[in-house]
Each structure stands twice: as C-alpha cells, then as structure tokens.
What we know:
The complex is a heterodimer of chains A (213) and B (208). With 213 residues, chain A is mostly helical. Chain A is built from nine helices and no strands. Chain A has helices spanning 26-32, 42-50, 54-74, 79-96, 106-131, 145-158, 160-170, 178-185, 189-207. In chain A, α6 crosses α7 (160-170) and α8 (178-185) packs across α9 (189-207). The longest helix of chain A is centred in the middle third of the chain and has 26 residues, at 106-131. Chain A starts with 25 loop residues before the first helix and ends in a 6-residue tail after the last helix. In chain A, 43% of the residues are buried. With 208 residues, chain B is α+β, with helices and mostly antiparallel strands. Chain B has helices spanning 9-16, 22-33, 37-55, 63-78, 96-103; strands spanning 88-89, 91-95, 115-120, 124-134, 137-146, 156-160, 165-168, 176-183, 188-192, 197-201. A five-stranded mixed sheet of chain B has the order 1-10-9-6-7, with no helix packed on it. In chain B, strands 2-3-4-5-8 form a five-stranded antiparallel sheet. In chain B, α1 packs across α2, α1 (9-16) crosses α3 and α2 crosses α3. The termini of chain B are far apart. The chains are: A mainly alpha (213), B alpha+beta (208). The A-B interface holds A 23, 49, 52, 54, 57-58, 61-62, 65-70, 73, 79-80, 82-84, 86-87, 90-91, 94, 144, 147-148, 151, 170-173, 193-194, 196-198, 200-201, 203-204, 209, 211-213 and B 8-10, 13-14, 19, 41-42, 44-53, 55-62, 64-66, 68-70, 72-74, 76-77, 167, 169-170.
Amino acid sequence: MPKIYAPGERMDAVDGGVGGGMSESRSHFVRHRGGSGQPPSDAQLLARCRSGDPAAWDTLVGRYERLVFTVALRNGVSREDAADITQTTFVALLDALDRIRDDERLPSWLMTVARRNAWRVRGASRREVSLDGVEDVAQEPTVDWESYLALHEALGRLGGNCRELLMALYFDPAEPSYAQLAQRFGRSIGGIGPMRGRCLDRLRSILGEETFL
Amino acid sequence: MSEDQSPSFTDLLDWVEGRADETVAARVAAAVGGGDQRAAGIVEWIRGFHRSAAEMSMAAPPPLVRQNLRLQFARRMSGERADAPDFVDGELAFDSRRDLSRAGTRGAASDADGVHLMFRTDPADVLIDLYPMDPGTVRMDGRVLASDAGAPPIFEAIVLAPQRRLRDVDGDELGQFHFDQVPRDATELRVTNQVVAVRMPLDLADVD
C-alpha cells in the first residue's frame, strides 16, 4: 500500500531552477512559478484562482487537463465527449473553488468528478442506443483506478520540478527528448538524468517500496 | 554486499533504462545478479513503475477546451453570465459552382479543385472547401475568420444531416476545422465557441 503522508507534507524542496510543466509553456512558467523557483503547488494555485488570477487558473488547467481528459477517455467515451467532460469537470472546480479546502487532494477530486461525468455520458448514450433496439455490448474499461489515483497523488505530493520532470518523461505521449527537457528546465542535458533519478527515488519513498512489487 | 557498495538508485535506473555506460552496467549487473537484495528490489520497483506509467500514458485534450476554460474563468471572475451566444445565419457570399461558371473561369483543372464557399456574418467569415470522396460523402476543410482580431480563434464545428450529427472539436488556433466524411444529404454547418456562433445551410449534392 502507498505510504500515507500528512496533508502539506510535500517534497517540493528538490532541485531548484526554472521549471516547466508537461503542458505549461516555459515562458508562461517562468512568469508564474512559485517564489522559491519551484512551480507553484496546487494549494497556491487554488488560492490565486480564488483571488481571480487568470494565469493561476491557466496553470492549474494545464497541470491536470490531460489527467481529466484521459480519465474520461478510459471510461469509454468518445474524444468529443471526453473534451466536453474535461470542460465540465473544470467548470465544476470553478463552482467549488470556495468550498474546496483539502487542496492536497485535487487530483482525486478531479478524477472523481470526471469519472462521474463520464458515467453520465455513457449512461445517456446507452439509452440512445437502446432506443434503436441495438443491444449495448460495450465492455466496462478495465483500469486500476486505485493505482492510478495513488500514483497521481504521489506525484502531487512530490510537487515542484520533480513532478513536472517525471510527468514529462514517463507520462507524456509526446516523449520529449532530454535536450527538450534540458531547455524547458533550464539545465544541461547531462543534468536531466541524475535529476530524474533523484526525483524517481523520492517518488518511491512517497509511494512505498512495495508499491509495484 | 554492503549498502556502501550497492549501486545508487540513479545507476540502477540508468541500467534498467539502458542509459548506463559499460562500467556502471557491469557493476549493476553484478550486484543484481549477485544477491544484492536492495538493488534487486529497486530494479523490480523501477520495472513496475515503468509498466504502470506505460498503462497510464495521458492524452491531451483539444486546444478548444483550454480556450473555453479561460473564457469561463474570465467571465466567472467578472460576474458576467456565461450563456452560449445566439447563432447568427451566415450569408453565402461566394460559391465556386455558381460564381466561377458565371465568370467563365472554371477550367480543365477545376475537377480536382472541389467546391469553395464563403459565408459572411458580422462576427466572422467562414471559408469552406469541399472535395468529393465517394458517391455518399465529401471531405470538408473549413476556416473561421473572426472579425474581431481579439476574439477566441478556436472553434467547434458541427454538421447536421437527417440521421446524423458530426462534431469536430479539434479546431486549431487558425480557426481551421475538418471533416473526412460529410454525408451528401447534410443540411447545415455550425461553427461555435463561447463568443461567436454561426450557422450555414449546406447543399452538397453536386460537389464534384
């Protein structure tokens, strides 16, 4: 089982320097990174969103739009419906901005809302299909959501440049090169390998050594 | 093997990912194969992480989503209502089937050129290129040119046909949209974002 860390017990203080998100452009990131040179935490971004900062909202959406979109897709809806669900999920976050207090659980909150919206869409499309007299034989997608969530929450706790680097290296279908990452993170190409080693080792500490065994 | 001699996490990661040089690779291989339980455990963890990451690769949503969410946030913070815009009807300003033949400029090469349409409205012009695909469908490439240079440039496109409704949510920042197979009995095209919404009649029967 993943090790449970207390709220606020983040591992941001790793690897300084300019950071960049998987889908956060570097120039945008330079303007809006946290005061320590690290990308801002979810809690910081949510606080800035509450005060009406559009750049914080854009950064927050950029950080999690792929997660929400992918969760929708993996719940068996079309690309068009997944786009709608992504939008609906973030609009729900806008509605809930003043109510969300457990900022550390934002990935979990977004995934839950996205899955619920996807179920609704799938339920509606099933009803439409049944009107045509066609039996719905679609299979429930088999996704280990518990592991999915544990991994994303651990990445959230890792935070900072480490989170952004691991997301880019291991979860971005575009598979950016070390040269591209070096430019994005303002480091030498030779510095990316050791940094990803340190970051993944810390992720292992958060998740627990037994997680993938 | 003592902890001091055991390979570092990064060396083990480099080895698993095929990035270790020969010296490091030999040392790691010896440790993992020689009963270093710490090293073997980390290697297994890394391989498990790779498997999980491969299963959880994430897809990017269309850029339209980000554009719409920026607008939603701006409207929410300004207290503006976020109602969808009303559709305006596009006026056909150019149809190559009619206008080029009238001008006598349709040449021998025009068969491959398809049909070109332009619809005008106050908030945007819409350019459409239609190409025959098969007896039942045409390909549609379109572009929305908003009159206001500051207007959001990405659009969703919807084609309405008697039994079908097609959507393209992958419009780009140039206002372009695309459909591979539009049924020839389609009657209407709609392009919309949260600021501009245009609808246009379609007549695709003689696109050739």
